[in-house]
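Appendix B. Raw example, untouched.
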Amino acid sequence: MIKVVFCAISFMISSVVYAQSSDSIQDVNELPADEEEVSELGMEDEIDNFDFLYTNNGETFNYDKILVENLMKEAYKHLGARYRFGSKGPNAFDCSGFTSYVYKKQSDVNIGASSRDQYARNIPIKREELQPGDLVFFTSPGSRKGVGHVGLVIDYDPLTKEFTFIHASTKSGVKISKSSEPNYTRRYVGARRVQ
């Protein structure tokens, strides 16, 4: 008798669960199918809203993809080139010599001779606005004051706010580094865009 009552209760519970899941399935099948209805729900706006990656207080930056690709190709050509203070390339570089050489070679733009000059001359941007081709600045390894080193942004992750950059380091010559490396995290000063 207990088995019969238990089976009856189990059957009633499973019937209720099935009825509720059938209603849910039916509701899913009734979702709008055309674009007009999707847009009314705001789904289209949510999917396409990536403007925050390319704007600065409503001002859109002119991002020249071909120029940036050419800058990166030129910069990568010099990976491993040795460091020499005051050198402007093409066989040896100091940090500002490297960034100015790459820009001059690909866009015929004079971005400034020293890291301080490049920092003062170009357009200030926030870290969140970094794009490939932007300049990033650090203090000198031996001091905590002012700008003393510069690199060229390769990529930026908006989720972690970390970036990868190529630069002429005093110890290793032209190399790729990450902003998350302790040496660069504590020395970061700011960023500039060349336009």
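End of appendix B.
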